[in-house]
Amino acid sequence: MALYPAVQREAQAGIYHVLSNGTVPQLSDRLSLPYVDSECMMWEVLRWKPLAPLGLPHLLTKHDVYKDCYLPSGSIILVNIWSILQDLRMFPHPEMFNPSRFLDDKKALEIVDCIFGFGRRACPGVNFAESSMFIAIAIALSQYCNAAYPTPLTFKGKRSRTMSSIGLGQ
Questions:
Q1: Cα–Cα separations (whole angstroms), residue 67 to 80, 96, 103, 153
Q2: How far from 21 is each of 10, 58, 157, CA to CA, in Å?
Q3: Rg (CA), the chain
Q4: Has 114 been labeled as part of a binding site?
Q5: What whole-number distance in Å separates Cα of residue 10 and Cα of residue 7?
Q6: Closest Cα to residue 93, out of 28, 47, 125, 34?
Q7: Is the pLDDT score of 31 beyond 80?
């Protein structure tokens, strides 16, 4: 968020609009916070800088052909997830952090879901990961300001904390 304070402010505005009197975001708030939840911020974080750009290796159990290329049984396959998530046709200006690209774009959501793997070998903890990311992002955005905007936001009569106000930073 330090690199994109305008995005941070937009997400914070959505949180402050939904929550009241300094309430900490809960998982039950996910549907009320689409910019922070799976439709925007969380998926853009995963798309912009994927944790495993080449995914996990897969072992072919039988011969296969991909685009006229013969792949023998026992071959190790790596999927270039980074390339999929940087596709200019699907994600214009992929180097930019732009959560709004996921608003009302179900195709983009389907594509970025590859971050959790494919088919039978997809991550079994995807629901836990999504919930954990949402709550981490939402709580961080609801409670802190960054150096680009050092003046704390007013949160329904209560001021947000800054890193320095809790003893971190300058």
A1: 16, 31, 33, 54
A2: 19, 49, 7
A3: 19
A4: no
A5: 5
A6: 47
A7: yes
AA letter at 168: L
Q: Return the higher-pLDDT residue of 49 and 13.
A: 49
pLDDT digits (tens, 9 = 90+) for 118-155: 877 788 999 999 899 888 888 888 877 655 445 554 54
With CA atoms as reference, report the closest residue to 115 among 133, 92, 95, 96: 133
* 126 in Cβ contact with 116 (< 8 Å): yes
pLDDT beyond 60 at 159: no
Instruction: Return the DSSP state at 52.
Output: S
CATH code of the domain in which 47 resides: 1.10.630.10
119 phi, psi to nearest 5 deg: 55, -140
pLDDT at 37 over 70: no
Domain extent for 55: 5-166
Residue 128, Cα to own-chain centre: how many angstroms? 14
The domain tally of the chain equals 1
pTM, 2 dp: 0.74
Kindly indicate the confidence band of residue 170, based on its pLDDT and cuts at 50, 70 and 90.
Answer: very low
> What are the residues facing 65 on neighbouring strands?
70
- Residue 139's Cβ-count burial label (10 Å; 0-12, 13-18, 19+) is middle
pLDDT at residue number 149:
46
